[in-house]
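Intended use. Records like the one below are meant for learning the mapping from a protein sequence to its folded structure. Do not use them to infer anything beyond what is encoded.
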Amino acid sequence: MLRINVSASIPLHEPNAGGGLITWFSVNVYHAEDENEEALIGEATVALVHVGEAANTGQDLRAVLDADSAELEALYHLYFKDSWLKDRYLDGSGSDLLYVADLKIAAAYDGQDIDLAVVRRLCDTIGHGCGLTVIPYDSKAESAYWSRMGFAVSTRGKQSGWLHMTMGDRKARLADTHDERCFKIVPNVAETKRQPHP
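Structure written out for the chain above:
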């Protein structure tokens, strides 16, 4: 069985520019051959930018990102305007931003799309209130790899930069295969075929 463990340190004080508006998560990916033996096969670092809460408390989002790191501040001009997601990224799914800063899976598990499955599960869980998910890329091959999940290049014409996926437009999902360590990309169920909740 494959699973992820997600942990974060969250201050209890009301969020402000000094803290609480960005939550960093440590993600560990585990594979268990049986109930008694589990191996760490991957790690990720993910940030949840609480854009809606920043707006509710009157914070300047650019200053919030800058106070955290240059890495996050660099996202501001790409995805935000006036401390809110740019119109082109608003699809009604949410206002926050999920940023996958890094993700590494052990080489022995290459080619099994585990990294894609990890990101999809993070989008569906801790990223549920987000309008956008962003990941960095270092090559055209890497951007093409992530495009299979619905990510688009935000920094066109550049060898490296960022990719984004609007959360209301997740075109693909990861389905199980006969091999528990491997996933396959399949389209989302068409809206017309979705069953209404009772």
